[in-house]
Amino acid sequence: MIGFALCVLAPAAIRNVSQTYLMTTLKWGESEVLLQAYGIVVLVAYLGNFVGAILIAPILKRGRQEFKTFVWITAVAWVGIASWLLLLVFKPTPLLVDSIQFCFGFGLGLISTSAYAIVMLETPASIEGFFFATLTSAMNIGSIGLGPILITRVGEAIGNMILAFNVTIIFNIIGLVALFFILNQPRQAEAADLEPC
Question: What is the pTM (predicted TM-score) of this model?
Answer without folding.
Answer: 0.83
